[in-house]
Each structure stands twice: as C-alpha cells, then as structure tokens.
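In the design runs reported in the main text, the only information available to the sequence generator was the tokenized backbone. The following block is the verbatim input for one such run; it is reproduced so that readers can re-run the procedure and compare outputs position by position.
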C-alpha cells in the first residue's frame, strides 16, 4: 500500500483550490519514472528563439561550442555542424548528450 502524501492546498480568492504544494522529495518521486525532463528555459530557447535542442542545452548550461567539442573529442567546426543539424543520428545525439551531461532523450524533442 502506498504511503499517503502530505500536501498543502492553497485556495484562490473565492475559496476554491488553486495550487497544491507537495514536499520536493514527493515531487521528484512522482516524476522520476516520467522520463528525463527538459527545463522550461531550454524549451523556450528551442521554440521562441528557434535554436536546435543541442544549442539550447549548451546555451542553458553556459558552455561554448569549443568546450562541448573538446569534451566530445572533435573540432569546434565539426561540433557546430552537428549542433545545427535538423536530424542527428542516434550516435551523434548520444555523444552530444554525454558531453553536455544530459540523457540523449533530453535532446530528442
């Protein structure tokens, strides 16, 4: 049997539930099986600024193309071509993800 979750309900001006606050550990447990999440800031860079997912993650993490390329063992220009590719091969996506410290599924959206 599942342990009940302790939470707090915040009501709006009319007395209706508007928000629920749950302990962080419970929040993490709830989403740990949902796959790898992508921060809102990264999603916004992709959709609002028309960046590739790889460039959005790199920008979000504050890395340069040269830093990511070095981690991958390729030249900056080779990485730049990968970063702008509209269709990365699975192996390339995995290599970029490893260099960024994220999962490859976080680049696949």
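Verbatim output:
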């Amino acid at each position: 049997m599942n342990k009940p979750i302790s939470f707090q309900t915040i009501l709006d001006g009319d007395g209706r539930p508007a928000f629920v606050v749950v302990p962080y550990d419970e929040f993490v447990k709830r989403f740990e099986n949902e796959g790898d999440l992508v921060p809102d800031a990264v999603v916004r860079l992709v959709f609002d600024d028309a960046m590739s997912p790889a460039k959005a993650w790199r920008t979000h993490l504050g890395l340069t193309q040269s830093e990511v390329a070095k981690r991958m063992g390729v030249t900056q220009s080779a990485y730049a071509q990968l970063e702008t590719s509209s269709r990365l091969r699975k192996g390339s996506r995995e290599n970029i993800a490893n260099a960024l410290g994220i999962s490859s599924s976080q680049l696949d959206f």
